[in-house]
Write a structure and sequence with these properties.
Length: 397
């Protein structure tokens, strides 16, 4: 065998078996060389699939968004018309839940404070209170045993009259007449359905452009009384925004251009600052009483455009002075008089005292304002006897 560097010459020729083996090895080698081409082709197919699938998905989503946009205006219009419709139901159910919770935990709370139960009917009237220039105010407070939170329907019974129905539900005769579009000479008959408001006043269906202030002006009442009525709801509790179409209760409102069957009493408070014997109460400020004591408003509101100083109704120790919760009463002062009485003065624009100091009866403690949940300058004045809220007019005679 002759060889040279870099070459191979077999000593003998290959047989058939060896040739077949070499042929197979050669084919395998050729297929191995083709693997990159197969792999590249596979990757190309995957890329094409992803591209086509993405294009299809985008088209499907685009069509879905087009359908949504076409129907969105209809949905928005429906929701706009229905806004506020269920607000009162939601609020009422929430209050009912709170009432149920109170019933459940009341026995537990009572057990924690034995001997502290106080019946408000057992509280004796103060015998040494300030006598005002008006001996008989003609004001009395009637609190219904059952709180009504909405307008109800009443079926007239045999023998009923407008006045007897009004007395039955604790509202004025005018309220029944106005709500049912009746005149003083109109007659009712058995089986007739009458709408009964929860309080004396009038109901109002909110229209475009209506505000708490414009409604109060229309019905000659205080906007604060509308805000304080607990079953009036607002779209925004900060700005008292109203929803078009909602029904608003206007306590003590008067129907425009209608003569009342009974005169409306507006009591003007006497000037504050009179000093009398210890244990009596002086008027905390001067002005007009814009809202009276009620089960949902356990105070009287006194308004005055000149925003006068607020005076301590009796001597005592200041226990709260400021705005601790950032809402509600706003700037307020609470005085503990040391004889079971406490008085609260709310919505002040300025406070002249600090917690812990003592004040004498008639001393200036702040200036009237409109801080907190308030619609205008006024004083919110509360009298509390051993935890029970009293009608301030019962001690300010």
């Amino acid at each position: 065998m002759v060889t040279r560097k870099g070459s191979f010459i077999p000593n003998k020729p290959f047989n058939n078996t060896e040739l077949n083996g070499l042929t197979r090895d050669y084919e395998v080698f050729r297929n191995l060389n083709k693997l990159p081409d197969y792999f590249n082709s596979y990757i190309t197919d995957i890329k094409l699939f992803i591209k086509e699938f993405s294009s299809y998905s985008v088209k499907v989503l685009h069509l879905s968004f087009i359908r949504f946009e076409n129907g969105k205006s209809l949905i928005a219009t429906f929701l706009y018309r229905q806004r506020g419709k269920y607000a009162k139901r939601f609020m009422h159910s929430g209050m009912a839940g709170l009432a149920a919770l109170g019933v459940v935990i009341a026995p537990v709370v009572a057990d924690e404070f034995p001997g502290q139960v106080l019946d408000p009917w057992d509280i004796p009237s103060s015998t040494s209170v300030l006598s005002t220039s008006v001996e008989n105010t003609g004001v009395s407070t009637d609190i219904s045993a059952k709180i009504r939170d909405k307008i109800i329907d009443y079926t007239v019974q045999e023998g009923d009259t407008i006045s007897s129905i009004a007395d039955k539900f604790g509202i004025s005769t005018d309220t029944v007449l106005w709500q049912n579009n009746l005149g003083e000479k109109d007659r009712i008959k058995p089986g007739q359905i009458l709408e009964i408001l929860p309080v004396s006043g009038i109901s109002h269906k909110v229209g475009k452009g209506d505000t708490v202030y414009s409604i109060a002006k229309k019905y000659d009442t205080s906007p604060q009384s509308i805000v304080d009525f607990p079953f009036n709801s607002f779209v925004n509790d900060e700005t008292f925004e109203l929803a078009i179409g909602q029904i608003l209760i206007v306590p003590d409102g008067i129907k425009p251009a209608v003569k009342q069957s009974s005169p409306r009493v507006r009591q003007i408070t006497p000037d504050a600052g009179t000093v009398v014997a210890s244990g009596s109460f002086v008027w905390p400020t001067s002005g007009s009483i814009t809202q009276y004591f009620a089960w949902y408003h356990k105070a009287i509101d006194i308004a005055n455009k000149s925003v006068p100083d607020i005076l301590a109704a009796d001597s005592g120790k200041v226990v709260v002075a400021g705005w601790p919760d950032g809402y509600g009463y706003g700037n307020r002062v609470i005085i503990d008089h040391g004889n079971g009485y406490r008085t609260l003065y709310a919505h002040l624009s300025r406070i002249y005292v600090v917690a812990g100091q003592t004040v004498s009866r008639g001393s200036a403690i702040g200036k009237m304002g409109s801080t907190g949940r308030s619609t205008g300058n006024h004083l919110h004045f509360e009298v509390i006897k051993e935890g029970v809220y009293l009608n301030p007019l019962s001690v300010l005679r």
